[in-house]
Specification:
With 482 residues, the chain is α/β, with parallel strands linked by helices. The chain has 16 helices and 11 strands. The strands form 2 sheets. It has an 8-stranded mixed beta sheet with strand order 4-6-5-10-11-9-7-8, with helices on both faces. A 3-stranded mixed beta sheet has the order 1-3-2, with helices on both faces. The protein binds glutamine. Glutamine binds next to loops.
């Protein structure tokens, strides 16, 4: 049962082959047995989950079915959950219980899903390896000496290890796609504004977007349909109607023109290139036309991102002052010391680094040189994508330059860490939707294929992903068989 997809579990529940209580207990037991080694969960919400599963089972017995009745899921610990602790991977929020649910949480709860826990993540979503969490590193289920990627490392590792059929994530510069790639699963970051950010703890508000982790494209489509849509509580959420992504992606595949940016392949690792090229051949034989394109400025993406994201985070994180909520330092003499000590004691080194960089980039005298310049690059990157999408339906490339790296390998080299996002950050800067799906292996570690679409073209992305998964079986590989 733990190997079943969301779509299969939905059918099993509807046909009463399994109850929600049985499913929920099964996944909770797997988490209890296997997670001590992986550390993918910060909070297990057993009691809450069992109660909800019983309510759903009672509804089902009365003939009431919600769209995703009784299916267990894990929420990234960046989404506020009423009555359940929300830490954002930080000592700052170690004891924080939100008085409300994030919209994403509310929508999935209303759809009938059962939250079994909150997943581990890089502190305030800043990181690419899940090593900046206050709650310890998450391990990659394919090899526990390796990182699962970040910042949504716990959400990705738990789905990859079959501890849960699906989970939520957030992506500011790659935090859904990069860990999906490194753990061999699917992860989609929709268009900026497609999903409400209400109750999703802010890192860099002009880049943050919620999405999901699943094992198949069809499952991603199912979940995305339920979390998308306008929310009066988030003024940046879009009023565009939400298609039925699952119905769209399983329709007969229509031939597509796909662009491959030369910048994504220049200097790429030989094996990654070989795996990528092989997949292009498969798609070429099966209804896709490929075209070389150029996204010249995408190489500047990481530099622009590492100014814009810290600038926004320095502002967003100013709310953690030890006064209103979060960690409060003890034995302080005055208000200034309260601010200083609370923030010094409760933020980890990566968060402090970002706040410092952001404050510096925004300060008088440096604003034009850094922040304004980064915004100009951002605009150029957006324009290049806009031009590309006049010629192609989708853009394809590897999600990451290489497979997962070893725990500790990049912790002392922030620049090397930041560069693991080289293929993912540009889409956030342009607000575009993108997805990573498994495309093969190098040295027994998974590799991801990134599909980038034009604004609100999630259906096209999912359709190609689904088509690809009909032609290949990488998405069915499980770390336990390894
Ligand atoms: N790895 C990137 C960073 O550290 C992206 C993080 C994210 O998408 N939340 O900023």
């Amino acid at each position: 049962m733990h190997n079943k997809t969301v779509s299969e579990l939905k059918k099993a529940i509807e046909k009463k082959e399994v109850s929600s209580l049985e499913l929920t207990s099964l996944f909770i037991n797997r988490i209890k047995n296997m997670d001590p080694e992986l550390n993918s969960f910060i909070t297990l919400t057993e009691e809450h989950a069992i109660d909800k599963a019983k309510i759903i089972d009672k509804e089902i017995s009365k003939g009431i079915l919600r769209p995703l009745s009784g299916i267990p899921l894990a929420q990234k610990d960046i989404f506020c959950t009423k009555d359940i602790k929300t830490t954002c991977g930080s000592k700052m929020l170690d004891n924080f219980i939100s008085p409300y649910d994030a919209t994403v949480v509310e929508k999935l709860n209303d759809a009938g899903m059962v939250i079994v826990g909150k997943t581990n993540m890089d502190e305030f979503a800043m990181g690419s390896s899940n090593e900046t969490s206050f709650f310890g590193d998450v391990k990659n289920p394919w090899d526990k000496d390796y990182v699962p990627g970040g910042s949504s490392g716990g959400s990705a590792a738990s789905v990859s290890a079959r501890l849960i059929p699906c989970s939520t994530g957030t992506d500011t510069g790659g935090s859904i796609r990069q860990p999906a790639s490194l753990t061999g699963i699917c992860g989609i970051k929709p268009t900026y504004g497609r999903v409400s950010r209400f109750g999703m703890i802010a890192f860099a508000s002009s880049l943050d977007q919620a999405g999901v982790f699943t094992r198949t494209a069809e499952d991603s489509a199912i979940l995305l349909t339920h979390i998308s849509g306008f929310d009066p509580k988030d003024s940046t959420s879009s009023k565009n109607p939400v298609p039925d992504y699952a119905a769209d992606c399983t329709k007969k595949f229509k031939s597509l023109i796909i662009g491959i940016p030369s910048e994504f392949l220049d200097g790429l690792d030989d094996k990654v290139r070989e795996v990528f090229d092989e997949n292009i051949r498969i798609l070429e034989k099966n209804g896709c036309k490929f075209k070389k394109i150029s996204l010249k400025s995408s190489k500047l993406g990481v530099s622009a991102y590492q100014v814009v994201a810290p600038a926004e985070c320095s502002s967003n994180l100013s709310r953690y002052d030890g006064v209103r909520f979060g960690y409060r330092a003890k034995n302080v003499k005055n208000i200034e010391e309260l601010y200083k000590k609370s923030r010094s004691e409760a933020f980890g080194p990566e968060v402090k680094r970002r706040i410092l960089i952001g404050t510096y980039a925004l300060s008088a005298g440096y604003y034009d040189a850094y922040y304004l310049k980064a915004q100009k690059i951002r605009k150029i990157i957006s324009n290049e994508f806009e031009d590309a999408f006049k010629e192609v339906d989708l853009i394809l490339g590897p999600t990451t330059p290489d497979t997962a790296f070893k725990l500790g390998e990049k912790t002392n080299d922030p620049i090397a860490m930041y560069l693991s996002d080289v293929f993912t950050v540009s889409t956030n800067l342009a607000g575009l939707p993108a997805m990573s799906i498994p495309m093969g292996f190098k040295n027994n570690l998974p590799l991801g294929l990134q599909i980038i679409g034009n604004h609100f073209d999630e259906s096209k992305i999912l359709s190609l992903a689904h088509h690809y998964q009909n032609l290949t079986d990488w998405h069915t590989k499980s770390p336990q068989e390894n």
